[in-house]
Design a protein that fits this description.
- This protein has seven helices and 17 strands.
- It is α+β, with helices and mostly antiparallel strands and 355 residues long.
- Strands 1, 2, 3, 4, 5, 6, 7, 8 and 17 form a nine-stranded antiparallel beta sheet that branches. Strands 9, 10, 11, 12, 13, 14, 15 and 16 form an eight-stranded mixed beta sheet that branches.
- β5 and β6 form a beta hairpin.
- The structure holds pyridoxal-5'-phosphate (PLP).
- The site of pyridoxal-5'-phosphate has 14 residues, from α6 and β14.
């Protein structure tokens, strides 16, 4: 298959793959060969390098330990049918991390350096990138932490930007079955708080809520808007998409929702590639019963279908049911994943060829 719109040059890059059971990988951490590290000191970032030591040694009083100064990103690299290694919109992760850093009084790691670092660390770990057809991918986790000692409450002066990579299995083994979500009594974000950035602290405070939901037999939490508790926000790590009975894609808008790159890509795909009407607006909880389909979107699973939302015993069951993804969401899923896999041409710059 020749796809010259994406492969600018052909390279021979047969590399010895690691001897892993690719088809049966879980979603967990595994130590790989290289990680990227850059340190910030005296007001500037150093040149950065690939290193082999997976451990971080820091002073006991480092800012990250005392006041949780940390933010992160998540994206994936994977092998296409032609044997190229690609990733999806890393520039968007770079930009979002710049926003996170600014809100947390951390230094910004420049976009071009971020994308270059992703490229370097994936290339160095090419042997860990799962082969095409395994359903697995290389999860890429960029993050930044405050590293010098801080005891009085203030931002650190020194920081470390790192990227670790680890091979992960398909998020859903044996296909995506619709999940059941509970309306949480906890909030994940405050009005004018940090819900819109990818800060570790947002996850620390959501752990109790998700453990509680799991104990009660639910897969995820639906968080309402913290100010009025009448509008739909998101789950702990994925944005919502809904389909109305007349086929419009609706996705919630709020200043305390984390702007998912998957969700923003879905909006483009639905409108430009599938000719759907797309609405990005406030969504009231009372509207949910009128939607035909519901899904969660994020890098990990792309789209997970939602079959049921439970609000203190009251069930909202979507007409798409508990057996399979609804038909409109399936269409979006198929189109977006085809673009990600470079089977069809997506908007310019979405698929970044690493090697
Ligand atoms: C990372 C994240 C998402 C998903 O974002 P993607 O860019 O699509 O992976 C959604 N919600 C929260 C709270 C997140 O942290």
């Amino acid at each position: 298959m020749e796809r010259n719109w994406i492969w600018k040059e052909t390279e021979d890059f047969r590399m010895e793959k690691k001897n892993l059971d690719w088809a049966n990988l879980g979603f967990g951490y595994m130590v790989t060969d290289y990680r990227y590290v850059s340190n910030y000191k005296d007001g500037k970032w150093d040149d950065g390098a690939l290193i082999t030591d997976p451990n971080v040694t820091l002073n006991e009083c480092a800012g990250v330990f005392q006041y949780s100064q940390s933010c992160f990103e998540g994206l994936k690299a994977y092998t296409t049918e032609d044997g190229h290694i690609v990733c999806f919109r890393p520039d968007m992760n770079a930009k979002r991390m710049m926003d996170s850093a600014e809100r947390l009084e951390m230094p910004v790691f420049p976009e071009d350096r971020f994308v270059d670092a992703v490229e370097q660390v994936v290339k160095a770990n090419a042997a860990w990138v799962p082969p095409f057809g395994s359903g697995a991918s290389l999860y890429i986790r960029p993050y930044m932490i405050g590293t010098n000692s801080v005891i009085g409450v203030k931002p650190a002066d020194e920081y470390q930007f790192r990227i670790l990579v680890t091979p992960v299995g398909p998020y859903f083994k044996g296909g995506a079955k619709p999940i059941t979500i509970k309306v949480s009594d906890f909030d994940r974000a405050a009005p004018h708080g940090t819900g819109h950035i990818k800060a570790g602290l947002n996850y620390a405070m959501s752990l109790h809520a998700i453990v509680t939901a799991h104990k009660e037999g639910f897969d995820e939490n639906l968080y309402l808007d913290p100010a009025t508790r009448t509008k739909v926000e998101e789950t702990g790590g994925a944005n919502f998409i809904f389909i109305t009975k007349d086929g419009t894609l609706v996705t919630p808008k709020s200043d305390s929702i984390l702007p998912s790159i998957t969700r923003r890509s879905i909006m483009v795909v639905a409108e430009k590639y599938l000719g759907m009407k797309v609405e990005h607006r406030e969504v009231y909880f009372d509207e949910l019963k009128d939607f035909a389909e519901c899904g969660l979107c994020g890098t990990a699973a792309v789209i997970s279908p939602v079959g049921k939302i439970v609000d203190h015993g009251k069930e909202i069951c979507f007409p798409s049911g508990m057996e399979e993804m609804g038909p409109q969401i399936k269409k979006i899923y198929d189109k977006l994943t085809a673009i990600q896999k470079a089977e069809i041409e997506g908007p310019e710059g979405w698929v970044k060829v690493i090697m």
